[in-house]
Amino acid sequence: MSVGVSYNTAWLKKHKIFHVMKEQDDSRPLDGLVQIDEAYWGGERHGGKGGRCAPGKTPFVVAVASNPDGRPMHFRLLRTGRSDVGRGLGPALPG
Questions:
Q1: What superkingdom heads the lineage (predicted)?
Q2: Could you say which DSSP state residue 29 is in?
């Protein structure tokens, strides 16, 4: 599919749109039932050490607000340092 612009232009526009969407979403507080969990992104895929301590993994915290029917409505992702995960979420989450 062609949109009539170069790849670099399309990539830049996409990221600008995502940035504005994130700013809009971040201005709204999470409410209702909010579930929080930790996760890890990336790391070694083949060979090498696996699990949470694998090189290159980035720890982050996710908070998901659900409506009364249990459907997810809004979420926040927060990249944290390894020392933040498992130590408690108080200092890691704003507000």
A1: Bacteria
A2: P
What's the domain count of the chain?
Answer: 1
Question: What is the C-alpha separation between 24 and 58, in angstroms, rounded?
Answer: 25
pLDDT of residue 29: 84
- Give me the domain span that covers residue 68: 7-79
Give the Cα separation of 22 and 13 in Å (integer): 14
HSE value, Cβ hemisphere, 13 Å, CA-based, for 64: 11
Mean pLDDT calculated for residue range 6-14: 92
For residue 38, how many other CB atoms are within 10 A of its CB? Answer: 15
Please check whether residue 2 lies inside any domain of the structure: no
